[in-house]
Amino acid sequence: MPLTPQDLERRLVAALAPARLEVIDESAAHAGHSGANAEGWGTHFRVRIAAPSFENKSRVQRHRLVYDALADCQALGLHALAIDILPTDETR
């Protein structure tokens, strides 16, 4: 069973307690590409996230926190992950 946005959200909330989080499955846009599956979902995701734990950390350190929170997802079918770090105080 491919991953869902909710699978990634659960892991990120548990690990980082984000102030803002959006997980988007972009797999359909990658149909036929490397890492895509026959279902057309659950392989390519975009994460938009703001978390207090990112404060005073470099871009690389922030991305590493996200990757660490999702470490087991690669074995579950995650092929590509785009990460957009948002300011913690951002309002939308």
Automatic annotation (TrEMBL):
GO MF terms, alphabetically ordered: DNA binding
InterPro entries: BolA (IPR002634), BolA-like_sf (IPR036065)
SUPFAM superfamilies (UniProt xref): BolA-like
UniProt KW keywords: DNA-binding
Any Pfam family: BolA
Domain of life from the UniProt record: Bacteria
UniProt-listed GO biological process terms: iron-sulfur cluster assembly
Family designation: Belongs to the BolA/IbaG family.
Name of the protein in question: DNA-binding transcriptional regulator BolA
Organism this protein belongs to: Paracidovorax wautersii
Name of encoding gene: bolA
